């Protein structure tokens, strides 16, 4: 096991800082990740998509860099998903995000019951702009099955 010090951007507001938005109390000072240097292909591809400025019209970092935004869901599903994930199913992509612990965030400007924008934003405490080293801390959720014997 090794320890990675968590750095936050001092130019962000309190609502954008990792220590304020993190649900994991261990994340404020340092984070310990397993020694498996293997980052799943799903996460590597996602990181590359969000980091690549040529796709900013479809997927990009939020202003604070603590989440990412899919700007045009239909275009994203038709143009980028088949190129990187070999399918066009946005629901499957979102299900994968959820399996890795990503959560959809709500924008206070669009706090109505239905968001009329075609944008959707996702957050994970270890998916941070400029901090690719934290990708190895993102683990897929494990399902447990209890058998009645």
From TrEMBL:
<feature type="compositionally biased region" description="Low complexity">
    <location>
        <begin position="8"/>
        <end position="35"/>
    </location>
</feature>
<protein>
    <submittedName>
        <fullName>Heat shock factor protein-like</fullName>
    </submittedName>
</protein>
<keyword id="KW-0539">Nucleus</keyword>
<dbReference type="InterPro" id="IPR000232">
    <property type="entry name" value="HSF_DNA-bd"/>
</dbReference>
<keyword id="KW-0238">DNA-binding</keyword>
<dbReference type="Pfam" id="PF00447">
    <property type="entry name" value="HSF_DNA-bind"/>
</dbReference>
<dbReference type="InterPro" id="IPR036388">
    <property type="entry name" value="WH-like_DNA-bd_sf"/>
</dbReference>
<feature type="domain" description="HSF-type DNA-binding">
    <location>
        <begin position="38"/>
        <end position="141"/>
    </location>
</feature>
<comment type="similarity">
    <text>Belongs to the HSF family.</text>
</comment>
<feature type="region of interest" description="Disordered">
    <location>
        <begin position="1"/>
        <end position="35"/>
    </location>
</feature>
<dbReference type="InterPro" id="IPR036390">
    <property type="entry name" value="WH_DNA-bd_sf"/>
</dbReference>
